[in-house]
Design brief:
By secondary structure, this protein is of the alpha+beta class. The chain contains 4 helices and 5 strands. A hairpin with a 5-residue loop joins β4 and β5. It is globular. The chain starts with a strand and ends with a helix.
Protein backbone atom coordinates (compact mmCIF):
# COMPACT_ATOMS: atom_id res chain seq x y z
CA UNK A 1 0.00 0.00 0.00
CA UNK A 2 1.44 3.35 -0.98
CA UNK A 3 1.51 6.30 1.37
CA UNK A 4 2.64 9.86 0.96
CA UNK A 5 5.38 11.41 3.07
CA UNK A 6 5.89 15.16 3.55
CA UNK A 7 9.57 16.16 3.74
CA UNK A 8 10.46 19.61 5.09
CA UNK A 9 14.01 19.15 6.41
CA UNK A 10 17.04 17.16 5.33
CA UNK A 11 14.85 14.74 3.36
CA UNK A 12 14.30 17.52 0.85
CA UNK A 13 17.83 16.67 -0.27
CA UNK A 14 17.04 14.02 -2.89
CA UNK A 15 20.37 12.08 -2.73
CA UNK A 16 19.88 11.59 1.01
CA UNK A 17 16.26 10.55 0.57
CA UNK A 18 17.16 8.12 -2.21
CA UNK A 19 19.81 6.54 0.01
CA UNK A 20 17.34 6.08 2.89
CA UNK A 21 14.35 5.11 0.76
CA UNK A 22 15.49 3.66 -2.57
CA UNK A 23 12.00 2.83 -3.80
CA UNK A 24 10.42 6.18 -2.87
CA UNK A 25 9.14 8.31 -5.74
CA UNK A 26 9.08 12.09 -5.74
CA UNK A 27 5.49 13.10 -6.52
CA UNK A 28 5.56 16.87 -6.19
CA UNK A 29 5.41 19.72 -3.74
CA UNK A 30 2.79 21.04 -1.33
CA UNK A 31 2.25 23.46 1.53
CA UNK A 32 1.36 22.59 5.11
CA UNK A 33 -0.84 25.49 6.13
CA UNK A 34 -0.99 27.00 9.61
CA UNK A 35 2.34 25.46 10.65
CA UNK A 36 5.82 26.94 11.03
CA UNK A 37 9.34 25.52 10.96
CA UNK A 38 11.41 25.42 14.14
CA UNK A 39 14.70 23.83 15.14
CA UNK A 40 14.33 21.75 18.29
CA UNK A 41 16.71 19.66 20.35
CA UNK A 42 16.90 15.90 19.98
CA UNK A 43 19.40 13.40 21.34
CA UNK A 44 22.02 14.10 18.67
CA UNK A 45 21.48 17.80 17.90
CA UNK A 46 18.87 20.31 16.80
CA UNK A 47 16.65 19.39 13.86
CA UNK A 48 13.71 20.83 12.00
CA UNK A 49 10.19 20.22 13.14
CA UNK A 50 6.87 21.91 12.53
CA UNK A 51 4.42 23.38 15.00
CA UNK A 52 1.01 24.99 14.62
CA UNK A 53 1.01 28.73 13.90
CA UNK A 54 -2.01 30.45 12.41
CA UNK A 55 -1.26 31.97 9.01
CA UNK A 56 2.17 30.34 8.62
CA UNK A 57 3.10 27.90 5.85
CA UNK A 58 5.72 25.20 5.43
CA UNK A 59 6.73 24.11 1.92
CA UNK A 60 7.26 20.36 1.55
CA UNK A 61 8.29 17.75 -0.98
CA UNK A 62 5.80 14.91 -1.33
CA UNK A 63 7.23 11.41 -1.68
CA UNK A 64 5.30 8.25 -2.42
CA UNK A 65 6.70 5.60 -0.07
CA UNK A 66 6.28 1.88 0.30
CA UNK A 67 6.17 0.07 3.64
CA UNK A 68 9.93 -0.62 3.63
CA UNK A 69 10.63 3.08 2.95
CA UNK A 70 8.41 4.10 5.83
CA UNK A 71 10.16 1.66 8.17
CA UNK A 72 13.50 3.15 7.11
CA UNK A 73 12.20 6.66 7.78
CA UNK A 74 10.84 5.55 11.16
CA UNK A 75 14.31 4.37 12.15
CA UNK A 76 16.01 7.51 10.84
CA UNK A 77 13.54 9.88 12.51
CA UNK A 78 13.58 8.00 15.82
CA UNK A 79 9.88 7.22 15.64
CA UNK A 80 8.13 6.96 18.07
CA UNK A 81 10.72 8.04 20.69
CA UNK A 82 11.65 11.43 19.23
CA UNK A 83 9.27 12.13 16.39
CA UNK A 84 5.62 11.20 16.07
CA UNK A 85 3.59 11.08 12.85
CA UNK A 86 0.73 13.35 11.92
CA UNK A 87 -1.43 13.17 8.82
CA UNK A 88 -2.31 16.22 6.75
CA UNK A 89 -4.51 16.77 3.76
CA UNK A 90 -2.50 18.73 1.20
CA UNK A 91 -2.79 19.81 -2.41
CA UNK A 92 0.13 18.27 -4.28
CA UNK A 93 1.50 20.02 -7.36
CA UNK A 94 2.93 17.30 -9.64
CA UNK A 95 6.68 17.57 -10.11
CA UNK A 96 6.50 16.95 -13.86
CA UNK A 97 2.92 17.67 -14.85
CA UNK A 98 2.10 20.55 -12.51
CA UNK A 99 -1.27 18.87 -12.00
CA UNK A 100 -2.95 19.53 -8.64
CA UNK A 101 -4.22 16.60 -6.56
CA UNK A 102 -5.47 16.42 -2.99
CA UNK A 103 -3.72 13.73 -0.95
CA UNK A 104 -3.51 12.61 2.66
CA UNK A 105 0.12 12.45 3.69
CA UNK A 106 2.12 12.12 6.89
CA UNK A 107 4.93 14.17 8.38
CA UNK A 108 7.21 13.53 11.33
CA UNK A 109 6.98 16.05 14.17
CA UNK A 110 9.26 16.39 17.20
CA UNK A 111 7.48 16.42 20.54
CA UNK A 112 6.46 20.03 21.19
CA UNK A 113 7.90 19.96 24.72
CA UNK A 114 11.45 19.80 23.36
CA UNK A 115 13.58 22.91 23.72
CA UNK A 116 14.49 25.11 20.79
CA UNK A 117 18.05 24.49 19.63
CA UNK A 118 20.64 25.69 17.15
CA UNK A 119 21.36 23.25 14.32
CA UNK A 120 24.78 22.34 13.02
CA UNK A 121 25.95 24.23 9.93
CA UNK A 122 26.18 20.88 8.09
CA UNK A 123 22.51 20.07 8.79
CA UNK A 124 21.42 23.61 7.91
CA UNK A 125 23.31 23.40 4.59
CA UNK A 126 21.68 20.07 3.66
CA UNK A 127 18.25 21.58 4.33
CA UNK A 128 19.20 24.69 2.36
CA UNK A 129 20.29 22.55 -0.61
CA UNK A 130 16.86 20.91 -0.60
CA UNK A 131 15.08 24.26 -0.39
CA UNK A 132 17.04 25.55 -3.36
CA UNK A 133 16.49 22.38 -5.40
CA UNK A 134 12.71 22.74 -5.06
CA UNK A 135 12.72 26.51 -5.50
CA UNK A 136 11.26 27.08 -2.03
CA UNK A 137 11.59 30.48 -0.40
CA UNK A 138 14.55 30.11 1.95
CA UNK A 139 13.10 32.75 4.26
CA UNK A 140 11.12 30.03 6.10
CA UNK A 141 14.32 28.15 6.83
CA UNK A 142 16.30 31.21 7.91
CA UNK A 143 13.41 32.50 10.03
CA UNK A 144 13.46 29.18 11.89
CA UNK A 145 17.21 29.50 12.35
CA UNK A 146 16.98 33.07 13.71
CA UNK A 147 14.13 32.13 16.06
CA UNK A 148 16.25 29.27 17.38
CA UNK A 149 19.31 31.46 17.89
CA UNK A 150 17.27 34.11 19.67
CA UNK A 151 15.36 31.70 21.93
CA UNK A 152 18.34 29.46 22.67
CA UNK A 153 20.14 32.47 24.19
CA UNK A 154 17.33 33.23 26.65
Amino acid sequence: MKRYYLAYGSNLYAPQMRYRCPTARLMGTAIIKDYELLFKESKTGAYLTIEPKQGAEVPVAVWEVKAEDERSLDRYEGYPDYYYKKEFQVTVKGIKSGRLRVRTAFAYILDESRAVGIPSIKYLNVCLAGYRKFGFNTRNLFDAYYISRREARI
